[in-house]
Amino acid sequence: MQLQFYKYQGTGNDFIILDGIKEDIVLTNEQVALLCDRKFGIGADGLMILAPSEHTDFKMIYYNSDGNQSTMCGNGGRCIVKFAKHNGYVESSTNFEAIDGEHKAKILENGIVELEMIDVESIECNDPIYILNTGSPHYVKFADGEETDILEFGRSIRYGDRFKADGINVNLVQEEAEGISIKTYERGVEDETLSCGTGVTAAAISSVLRSDKNGEQQVAIKAVGGNLYVNLDRTGKDSFSNVWLCGPAEKVFEGTFNL
Q1: Which member of 36, 73, 79, 246 is catalytic?
Q2: Is 125 a catalytic residue?
Q3: What is the pTM of this model?
Q4: Most exposed among 8, 25, 74, 221, judged by the fewest C-beta atoms under 10 Å?
Q5: For 52-80, what is each residue's pLDDT tens digit?
C-alpha cells in the first residue's frame, strides 16, 4: 500500500498526518509504530488521522509512536488544525472532535495556532508536585534549579508502582524571570520530547496555582523545542476554564511511503 503522508511539527513535537477524508485509512498498531520509527520509517513522536466527523469540521485520531491510540495531544491538535487549513477543510477558525471532546481553534495571521483545551477542575497539589489531567495525565515537578535528568526521573515516575499500569507524562519545570521552562518525558514515546502541549498546559496551570494568582492569566513557557504561551482563567481553588494553548505549527514536508 502506498501511503500519502504529511509531516508537521509544533515547537519540535513532530507528527505524521494522514488525510482520512480523501480516503478511508485503517492502520494496525504495528504499522503506526513502523511509520513513526526514526530508523525504519518516516519518524515522528506521533501519528494523526484527519477523519470525517458528523458534528464538527473533522475528527482527530491520535496515536503515540509506540503504535497505540492515545489521549489528547495539544501540539498535535495545533498541527492538525494547520494541516486542515492548508488542505482547504477550514479557514481561520474551526471546531473539531478529539478523544477528550470538542475543541475550538483559531489560526492567526502570523501563523500562530490557538487551541482551546479542556477545563480542569481536579488537581492533586503537594508543592512542588502537581498531578492533573489536561486531556492527558501529567505529573509536574518544580525543580527550582535542580539539574535532574528528565529521562531517569521520568522513567522512575512513569514506571513507579502508582502509575505503571496506565502511565503518566512527567514534567520538570523551572521558574524563570518571565514565565517558566519545561522538560517532558512522554509515555507512549517513552523518551523526552522537545515539547508537549498538554504538558505545557499542565505546567502553566500548576505555575498559576503555585503563585496563588486568580482570574485571567497568561503564562509564557520555554520548551526545549521553542516557545509557547497559555491563556487561562482561574475560576476557583482548583478549577480553570477558557484554557488556550498557543504557539507555532508548521509543515515540514510531504511524501509517500510504501507500507
Answers
A1: 73
A2: no
A3: 0.97
A4: 25
A5: 999 999 999 999 999 999 999 999 999 99
